[in-house]
Amino acid sequence: MKKIISVATLTLLVAMATGLRAQNIYDAVKFNNNELNGTARFVGMGGAMGALGGDISTISTNPAGIGIYRSNDVMGTISFSALETKSNFNGLSMKEDKNQFNFDNIGFVISNKIGDYTALRYVNVAFNYKRNKSFNKYMSMAGSVPTFTENGEDYVVSQTTQMARQANLMYDATRTDIMDYKGNPYNDPNVGWLAALGWNGLMYEFYEFVNESGQTDGYYRGYIDQPPYSQFYSKETGGIDEFTLNTSFNFNDRVYLGLTLGLYDVNYRKYSWYDESYDDNWGYSLESWNRTKGTGFDVKIGAIVRPFEYSPLRIGLAIHTPTFYTLTNETEALLAYEGMEDGNHQYWDDEISTYDELGGRVASTKYKLHTPWKYNFSLGYTVGSALALGAEYEYQDYSSMKFRYTDYQGGSMYWETGEAKDKLKGVSTLRLGAEYKFVPEFAFRVGYNLSTAAFKKEAWKQLPDNSILTDTDFANTKSVSDYTFGFGYRGKSFYADLAYRLHTYKEDFYAFDHEYLQATKVDNNRHQVLLTLGARF
To answer: Which domains does the chain have, with CATH numbers?
Structure first.
């Protein structure tokens, strides 16, 4: 098939009806997940410093860790990352690579000594900027989509089936018949864009029959009778920036308390292209552009306790409130199609752009997302001044995510919140780390992270009847691992740290929702090198 790809100019202008749905749990999970990032020392120890403290990156895990400081500190971190995504669909493998530089961290700690013999020894304040999350990811897949057999007959698996299914959902829910629609469907809050584009592009049909009562009845169905050759490409960019303010207290060098206010800036962009081609040189391609931007905040409280005086053991506890996001999603789509008319072999080709259909506008929806509460428990142990060991456990119940409208008095978005409850689950994260000093000035570090999957095994990306989303792809991520090691130098005031991190996970990818679609097996790897330079005084 000749690819017809017309890139519409992305001019983000005016908002449309708030009734249109442009939210889904797969994006929400992206906005909630935190990456192992921060200073090179923190990353080198696998982030397992919640009870050990003494590093500014603990401001985001256990705020009490800033209370360990006894001097002022200023630092900054840069990194280089190599991204690699490998896919395998029905025996065909593809690979995407991308390199990038990032500015990951800058911050300072001001330590205020109160006294040597008072119960309150230090009051410290800190500010930190951190690249909380990178969305950068490039993915491609291709291959012939196998048919499935039912009752002795072979059936085709195609995205057009999902288009027809949304048209049937619309008719059942709102009596909106896409076949007889006379207005502009892309500006109607009852119409799903996937169904509208598919119908305008002749991607499915209305099947009419006489039912058992003798009445004429019918439904929408895909009419493709040839197994398609499927191709997909997506590009995700942007990230979440975190700005944190902290106050912490040291009582008798045994109890440390901390409070952190976190402010977040979200900027997420996704471009996806999906193509199906068939015999006789015909088929279609569907492009989608999505952008989510917004802000959020949360509050974290934490404590570190030495259970026994002069004990090398430290116990850490921290609780994070939900992050309260206010987000805006902007989207547009383009369907290009070509083929031969049945019967007379008339050739046709055309394209439909939602941007053009809306008079040079993108669709915009605004909503609130409340992420789950987070609970953190950590242990730290030191052996003299040479060895430090850290362990940390963190839990979040992703199924407790909540979506809310920004209008309607902030009412609940029951469908989206129900999707989270039905398809997400609790996530446990284990962090382990160690630091060993060969001599007082030089240290070697090693760490490991493991986070369990957020999605239930049977989860899928469901588009409701009036969704304006047309990127039907989704991926069920499995457990995520981080392997780290690093080195550090500490002078009288200047210090430098270097760390390496391997971020790796597997996922089952689906270009669209169909119960018989074979999963694309995807391996994701990110190699990251971080350098931190700082001074204590």
So the answer is: 25-142+239-536 (2.40.160.60)
